[in-house]
Amino acid sequence: MAEQRRFLSAAGVPIALRRRQHSASCRELAVRGPRLQLRSLSAVTSAVWLAAYGLFALSENSMVLSAAIFITLIGLIIYLHFVKIDQESLLVIGSLGIQVTSSYASGKESTTFIEMAQVKDVVINEAIHMQKVIYYLCILLQDPEDPQGVSEVVPLFQFCFHGNNLSTGRVDSSRKEELQATIGLLDRSVQKLSRDPGAEEDSSSIK
Amino acid sequence: MSLQVTAMVLKVFFPSCCSSADSGILIGRWISEQNSAVVLAVVHFPFIPVQVKQYLGEVQRVTKVSVSVLGSWSNSKQEKEESLSEFLEDLGTIFCHEPWIQISKEGDSKFWSCSILQKHSKNPQEEEIILVYYDQRKVMLSHLHPPLDTAGQRAEDASKLSAIFDTVARSQVLFMTDRYDEGPIKLTHWQSDGVEASIIVELLKQASVPACMLLTFLLSLLSGICRSRVLKFWPLSFLWSKLSTCEQLGHRLQHLQVISSNKKAQNQNQLMRKANIFVSLLIDVALGILLMSWLYRKNRIGQLADTLIPVADHVAEELQDLLQWLMGAPAGLKMNRALDQVLGRFFLYHIHLWISYIHLLSPFIEMILWYVGLSACLGLTVALCILSDIVALLTFHIYCFYVYGARLYCLKIYGLSSLWRLFRGKKWNVLRQRVDSCSYDLDQLFIGTLLFTILLFLLPTTALYYLVFTLLRLLVVIVQGIIHLVVDLIDSLPLYSLILRLCRSYRLAAGVKFRVLEQQDGKPLRLLMQINPLSYGRVVQTYRLPTYSCYPRDSWASLCKKLFLGELIYPWKHKGDKQN
Amino acid sequence: MAPGSAQGAPAAGRSGPGMQGGGPAAHIVCMVSDFFYPNMGGVESHVYQLSQCLIERGHKVLVVTHAYGHRKGVRYLSSGLKVYYLPLKVMYNQSTATTLFHSLPLLRYIFVRERVTIVHAHSSFSAMAHDALFHAKTMGLRTVFTDHSLFGFADVSSVLTNKLLTVSLCDTNHIICVSYTSKENTVLRAALDPRIVSVIPNAVDPTDFTPDPSRRDDSTITIVVVSRLVYRKGIDLLSGIIPELCQKYPELHFLVGGEGPKRIILEEVRERYQLHDRVRLLGGLEHQDVRNVLVQGHIFLNTSLTEAFCMAIVEAASCGLQVVSTRVGGIPEVLPENLIILCEPSVKSLCDGLEKAIAQLRSGTLPSPETVHKEVKTFYTWRNVAERTEKVYDRVADEVVLPMKERLDRLMAHCGPVTGCIFAFFAVLNFLLLVFLRWMTPDSIIDVAIDATGPKGAWTKQYFLGKKRRAKEELADS
C-alpha cells in the first residue's frame, strides 16, 4: 500500500515522498524533509553563546549570559513551532476534496481542506523565489463569481523550496522528476475523482 | 488499464453518537447532487411504519428539510442473525428509498460493513462507499452552515459541503425534544442539554432585562447632556475634539450603548461583538481599579505631584540652555546674527511665561492629580488617555515652538520654490494645476532675485531652529503614540473570542478536516470529520473591535516629505476641519 | 525517453561552454535588456521580433528584463518565447539601479538552468544589460552587445557613460550597431577595434504597416508626428514649426501621438495660438494603434536631434506617407532620396522641407502610397536581421572567452589606469561572489528548465500527445 521514494529538494536537501493508497478513491502523498540536524543546532547554539561570552568578557555584565540562554531557548521554540516543517502531506479523497496538512517539528499541525468543487486545476508553475527560479506544484481555486477566474493559488509542498544547506546527503535523480511524479499521481487522482473528466487536457498545463 | 473512471463515490455521513445505538432504521437526508446521505438519527425497533412516516412528515414541516428513511442499521451484539438481515431487506420495500443503505456493526468491531441496494437500477455497478463520522453537536455549534434565513439560495449550494452542515443545523428541532418524553417512536441522536441545565441561564437572562433598561435610560440621559447646546460652542467643542480623554469616554459610551440595547443580536458576528465589548470593558475597569488601589495607597499621589513640578522646571531650564546655545554659534555654524537673536529672545520669553505659569499652578497640582486619579475607576484606558493629555499639556511650550519654527520654515521654502520657478521663466498656474512658462519683465526679475538671495541666506538660521524643535516635538509625539497604542490594544483586543478559541475551539471554525481511520480490506473507508479551528491570528483579525482613533497613518515617505516642507504633524486624527 | 528528446537542445548546450561545434549548432541565446514589453519603443520591438525570428530558425531564445508593475516572474509569449521579469528596483527611465553585483545570483541561476551559451545585451542605457555582460564574462559565457543609440562626446554625462561603455565593451566578444553612423559613434566612444563591430539595421514588419488612403481626409493636409515627447526627439523644434506653418496654411492639421515630459510645451503652443481644432494630441499609443494613426496623415514629420536608426520613418514610409526628417545620425542611411526630404535640425529648415512636401502634395507629384509601400517592403525584414545576427552568433561561438587573467590585463590596459584598476578589482570581487554562489548551490543541483521554444517546444500539441501516451504507459505499469 505504501511506497517510498527519495529525492532532492530545490535547495539540495534530501526529501522522501511516500504514497499510500487508503482505498480506491482515497490516497495520501507525504513529503518528509530531513530531521533537525544536531550538528547545525549545536553550531548555532554555540555561536550565540560564544558571542554572548565575548560580550560578557567585555562588559562584565552577567545579564548578557542569561539573555543569551533565553534568546536561544525562545529562538529554538519559535523555530520548531513556526518555521521547521517536518512533513507535508496531501490527502486526496474522492469527490470530497483535497486536504493539505503540514506538520511542524514541534508536533503542531496546520490543516487546510479544499472542497473538490473549489478546485479548478492542479498545475506546475514556474516562479522566482528569493534568489532562485523554481518549479512548484499548486492548486488553483475557482473564483465563485467568475467561472473562468482563479481566486487563489495554493502552493503545495512549500518547504521543499528552501532549506539549509548544512546537510550534505546526496541522492540521485532531480527535483523535477519528483514534481512530475507527484503531479502525475495527483493528476490522476484529481481526474479520476473530479466530476468533469474534460479537465484532463489542461490539468498539466503550465502557466 | 487497471484504473478506470469509476462512478461517483457514495458518502454516508454518520453521527458518531449513534454508533452504539440499537438496531433500527436510519433517518436523514439524501443529497443527490453530492451522492451522499446525511444520517440524522436512528429509529429503534419496534415501530409502526405509519407512525414513522407521520413523524417524518411532521419533522419535515417544521424544519423544511426533506427527511426520509435512508436505510437500516443493525447493531448485533452477538452473531449475525440471518432472520434479521432478511427483515431489514424487507424494510426497504416498505420505505422505498433509492438507494437503500444497509449498515451493520458486528460485536465491538470497529469495521462496519455497508451495502447498497438499488432495485430499479439498470447497471448494478459496485459503488464505493465512504463512511464519514461527524459530531452533531460540534457541527451545529461551528456555524459553518449558511445563515438559516436565506432559504432561497439553498439550491445552488447543494453541491458544496455546506449543504451537509445546513441539513444538520436545520434539524435542530429534532435534537431539542425532551429525553424523557415517551413518544411512540424511540430515537437515538445527539441530545441537547435538557431544560434543567439552562434554568440558571434563563433566570440570568430575565434579570438582565431590567438592568439593561436602567442602563439604557442612564446612558440616554448622559448622551443627552453631552449633546446639549452648551457644550457645542466653539472653544469647547474644539477642546473636546483635541482631548483624547473625551474621545475615549465617548467611545466607551458607545460600547455601553451597544451592550445595553435590548435588540437581539441578529447573527453570530453581532453576538460575538457584544460579548467581546463586554469582556474588554470588564478587563479595562478591573485594571483601572487595580491601578487606583495602587495609586491611593501610601500617598503615592503626593509623591507624584512633588516630582512633577521639578521635572517640568527642569525641562524648561534645559530648553533655555538649548536656546542659549542656538543663539551663539551652534556646532560651529555661523548664523545670521540679527535673525538668530530675534528668534532666540522670542522663544526665551515664551519659556519665561511658561515657567511662571507652572509656578502659579504648583499649589494645586496635588489636588488636581487626586481628582484625576479617581477617573481610573472608569477604566485603565481612560487613565492612560488622561496621562497622554497631561503630557500634551505639560509640553505645550514645545508644541508652540514647533509651530512657530515650522510656519517660518514653510513660508521660506514656499517662497524659495516659487522664486526658483521665476528664474526658469515658469510660473504655477493655479487654474490648471500645472507649471506654465511665462515671460517676466526686468523689474520683476530684479525684485525676485533680491528676495531669493535674502531668503536663501536666512534659510540656514530658520532651518536650524526648525530642526531642533521638530526633534523635540517628535519625541513628544512618539511618547503619546505609544500611550495611544496601548489604549488601542486594550480597546480592540477580542478577548472573549480568544478565550473561546482556547477552550471551545470548535465554536470558531475555519472549515473541516478529515482523518483517515484505520481500515480493513473489503470494508468501506472510514473518515472522521473534525472541525478545523481558526488560527489565533485570524481570530484577532476577524473579531477585532473597531477603535475610534485611526491615526493619520502617513507612510514614512510622506511623513519625511511633510517634515521637509515644514507642514505640521499631529499625533491625533485629522478631522474634516483644519486646526488653525 | 521522451523527456530526453524534449530537452534535446539543453542537453546539447549542457556539454558546456568549453566545447562548441561550429556550423548549424543551435544556440541558446539570452537577450538581456531593461527595455521590453509592456514598455514601448524601438529596442523593445527589436528584441521581440529578433527573438521570434531566431526561434523560427531553430534556436532557443529567452528574454530577461525587470519587473513592470504587476508583471513579474516568468511569462511565455507566442511561440514559447520565455520572458523572465526579475524583481529588481527601477531607478530612472525604466532602467534598473546597478550595484554590479546584486543581480548575479538570479542571472547566474537563469543562465545555468537554461544552459545559455550566448548572452546578448541590448541598449547602452540599460544598466541590467551591462550587468548581465559583466556576469556572463565572469561565468565564461560568450557575449554580444547591440547598441541602439548615439551619444555625444562633450558633456559630463556623455563622458561618464562613454567610460562605462569602454569598460563594458572592451572584453565583449562582438558588438552590433544599427547603422554605420552608429558604428562609427560606438567605435569612437568605446575605443573599440572596428573589426568586432557589425552593422545590422533594424527592421519593421511590413504587414503591420500597410497604407490605407481611404482613411485620409483629402480636403485637408495632415502632418503626423509619432514619437515620445522628450527633448531628444526635438519637440522644441516641433513647437516652433506648428504656429509658423499653421499661419501659412489654413488647411493644415497636426496629429501628434506619444507621451512625455515635453507634452506641456505643445499644449501651451496650442493654447497660445488657439489651435485646438487643428493640433490633436493623442497621448500614449499602443503599438497596434500606431498604424491607424499613421494612415490618417499625408506627411510624416520626424524632428529627432539624435537617432541611431529611426524605425518611425520606415514605418511611416511603409504606410505610404511622405517623410520629412532632420539629417542627424543614421537617418540618411535609412531611406533612399526619393522617399525622404532631409532638413537641418532647425525650425526654418524643417519648415522649408515641409513646405516643399506640401507643394508636392498639392501638385500631385508624390508617388502613390501603394508604390511607396511596395518599395519599402523589401528594405528591412526581421528574417534578414535574424539571419545576419545568426552569423554573428556563429562567429562568436568559435571565439574563445577571455580567461580571468587576460580579462584583467585587458581591463587595465584598455580602460585607463584608474578606471581599469577599479573595474579589474570589481571583476575579481564578482568572481569571488560567483565562487561563493557555486559553493552555496552547486550547478549540479540547479534543475534544467523545460524548453518551451520552437515547434518541438514543451507545450505544443505534439508534446502533449507524447506526454499523454507516456502517462498511459505509466498507468499500465502501476
From TrEMBL, chain A:
InterPro entries: PIG-H, PIGH-H_dom. GO terms for cellular component: glycosylphosphatidylinositol-N-acetylglucosaminyltransferase (GPI-GnT) complex. Residues 89-158 form the Phosphatidylinositol N-acetylglucosaminyltransferase subunit H conserved domain. Pathway: Glycolipid biosynthesis; glycosylphosphatidylinositol-anchor biosynthesis. Signal peptide: none annotated. It comes from the Eukaryota. The chain crosses the membrane at residues 36-56, 63-82. The keyword Membrane applies. Keywords: Membrane, Transmembrane, Transmembrane helix. The keyword Membrane applies. GO terms for biological process: GPI anchor biosynthetic process. Belongs to the PIGH family. PANTHER family: PHOSPHATIDYLINOSITOL N-ACETYLGLUCOSAMINYLTRANSFERASE SUBUNIT H. This is Phosphatidylinositol glycan anchor biosynthesis class H. It comes from Taeniopygia guttata (Zebra finch).
UniProtKB/TrEMBL annotation, chain B:
InterPro entries: PigQ/GPI1 (IPR007720). The chain crosses the membrane at residues 207-226, 277-296, 342-361, 368-395, 401-423, 444-468, 474-499. The keyword Signal applies. GO terms for cellular component: glycosylphosphatidylinositol-N-acetylglucosaminyltransferase (GPI-GnT) complex. Keywords: Membrane, Signal, Transmembrane, Transmembrane helix. Residues 1-20 form the signal peptide. It comes from the Eukaryota. This is Phosphatidylinositol glycan anchor biosynthesis class Q. It comes from Taeniopygia guttata.
TrEMBL record, chain C:
Residues 66-155 form the PIGA GPI anchor biosynthesis domain. Its main location: endoplasmic reticulum. Keywords: Endoplasmic reticulum, Glycosyltransferase, GPI-anchor biosynthesis, Lipid metabolism, Membrane, Phosphoprotein, Transferase, Transmembrane, Transmembrane helix. Residues 213-359 form the Glycosyl transferase family domain. One of its GO terms (molecular function) is phosphatidylinositol N-acetylglucosaminyltransferase activity. The chain crosses the membrane at residues 411-437. Its EC number is 2.4.1.198. It is found in: Endoplasmic reticulum membrane. It comes from the Eukaryota. SUPFAM superfamilies: UDP-Glycosyltransferase/glycogen phosphorylase (SSF53756). The keyword Ribonucleoprotein does not apply. It is a single-pass membrane protein. GO terms for biological process: cellular response to leukemia inhibitory factor; GPI anchor biosynthetic process. One of its GO terms (cellular component) is glycosylphosphatidylinositol-N-acetylglucosaminyltransferase (GPI-GnT) complex. Pathway: Glycolipid biosynthesis; glycosylphosphatidylinositol-anchor biosynthesis. It catalyses: a 1,2-diacyl-sn-glycero-3-phospho-(1D-myo-inositol) + UDP-N-acetyl-alpha-D-glucosamine = a 6-(N-acetyl-alpha-D-glucosaminyl)-1-(1,2-diacyl-sn-glycero-3-phospho)-1D-myo-inositol + UDP + H(+). Belongs to the glycosyltransferase group 1 family. Glycosyltransferase 4 subfamily. Catalytic subunit of the glycosylphosphatidylinositol-N-acetylglucosaminyltransferase (GPI-GnT) complex that catalyzes the transfer of N-acetylglucosamine from UDP-N-acetylglucosamine to phosphatidylinositol and participates in the first step of GPI biosynthesis. This is Phosphatidylinositol N-acetylglucosaminyltransferase subunit A. It comes from Taeniopygia guttata (Zebra finch). The lineage of its organism: Eukaryota, Metazoa, Chordata, Craniata, Vertebrata. The gene is PIGA.
